[in-house]
Amino acid sequence: MPLIDAQTLRRLSTQILIHAGVPEPSAASQTDLLLEAELRGVPSHGLLRLRRVVERIGNGVANPASVGRHYWRREAFLEVDGEMGLGPVVALAALDQIAIRARQTGIAVAAIHNSNHIGMLGYYAERIAQAGQTILAFSTSEALVHPWGGRKAMLGTNPIAIGVPTQGEPFVMDTATSIVSMGEVHDYASRGEPLPEGWALDAQGNPTTDAAAAKAGALAPFGGAKGYALGLAFGLLASSLAGAALGRDVHGTLDSHSICNKGDLFIVIDGPNALLDDYLDMLRQAEPAEGVEKVLIPGERGRACRAERLRIGVPLAEPLWSDLQRLAAEQEGA
Amino acid sequence: MPLIDAQTLRRLSTQILIHAGVPEPSAASQTDLLLEAELRGVPSHGLLRLRRVVERIGNGVANPASVGRHYWRREAFLEVDGEMGLGPVVALAALDQIAIRARQTGIAVAAIHNSNHIGMLGYYAERIAQAGQTILAFSTSEALVHPWGGRKAMLGTNPIAIGVPTQGEPFVMDTATSIVSMGEVHDYASRGEPLPEGWALDAQGNPTTDAAAAKAGALAPFGGAKGYALGLAFGLLASSLAGAALGRDVHGTLDSHSICNKGDLFIVIDGPNALLDDYLDMLRQAEPAEGVEKVLIPGERGRACRAERLRIGVPLAEPLWSDLQRLAAEQEGA
Fold first, then answer.
1. Which residues on chain B are in Cβ contact (under 8 Å) with A242?
2. In sequence order, what are the beta bridge partners of B161?
């Protein structure tokens, strides 16, 4: 894979977005989100998604100028109508407001609807926790996951991110509640490899290891019944408070033409944080199991990956790198 | 197992606590928590724990009179020093305050330290969600769970409960982040049955299916690396904000003599809740997988169990039923 310098990618993506009609600061935010995913080794949430952002603007289902309309329903409850804005642009504007408000009230929440794909939740958690506040972040998405004991996709991959400040780098975890991403299933399908058992159902709702069949089926929730319960709870929490669509009614995070009707929820807490560093060090230094190199702290592998990729460049699959250059040419010509 | 009428158990437990020096309203709260666990089919958090509550009062590590001291650090951030009070007594007093405050501010948080075992988190979630508010509840506990890829117990079973109001009965989920409870491992050991693979490590940190060996070892987190990440995040979140102990430094939820230094965290949100009922109905009616009777909504099996046990009585293991009667006699004689 070609290794592309992060600054080159940043300039390229920002220019593409500006040519698509996105104001410069918003183009920088959308780019930063996608690039951070590449840097942290989460390509499913990276520059692969840029073409869809541009197409959605072109199709009138993403408004490049909107930052969202804010309604303080209560002193610490911010309702946000994203006005079809870009996901990170709307999210960051809302987060800034509740981070400030939480300094006065101790905690504040933003519930966002009518906004586009928010991307990697850990991005927001890292930002808030780096600045010394605690955060919980939730988002809903298209139905891709089957309920435990069911046959059809009826839940989103309903991710959660949690960030807690420490003396050093903050603790940041970010995970979907599906056993694996649909992107990974697509990767298996393109390589012609069988899926591990238990990952997916086919379109008829039967267990399958055929990745091509799984693309038309459903992903398993991670962790069996408990993971299903958590994913469902995160989805209900965000959808209920954001007034967003649920389950199979959710659209617009995976296509280029539907208005995006999922919900996002951020809770920021400005509390006195006790020190976690000694405990985290103890975990880092814990004796690993047979065949395991070391006990990991969530988020730290991504942070190490980021440092390396800032140094040596971002590995991009050749088709994606070509497509980005084509996209830039198209936008310049447009 | 003898089936004991719920009112009989309520009277018995309340009397035992009153004789142990607990004021009547607090005795009723502690009893209600334990009895609800029995009714909902969670005996590990039920009346089995009553003797320990009484012993802790006797040993001076639980203060039967305390309801906790409240400090509003910010308008919507309540810090609670439990003053060694009974877990549910301190928790309910704090919850009442933040539920009222959230009506003004939209969201409020209580961070509790120096309080005793809080019991089944779903109890609190059910209460708040029944009253029309949304809730997230966390608590930390003694280190019983090994980090993913580690050998020793270094995390609590770090449970979470989430409650969201609906038009009908609220959605309430409540789960520990261990693959199974240590209580269940004890049950396997007492029956001499082998554990399923992947549940536990022995004292040397090696995988074991020997339940007796697992009692001295560690439980696996549920759901592999993702479940570990979530359990760790829930634990850090609660400990950091509550100023509570972490990992192997946590004591007092499983013994009768240590001051309890874990933390509890409640977040109550008073938002406009969108309707979830149609979606939940769709899940209830979803076609089940081969060999599965129906798709379940978390919390509903417990609610059905509760209705039945209120009608026919609570099945109590004979040794527990005898012990409760012995405990009552001891306390009356004391």
1. 274
2. B137, B174
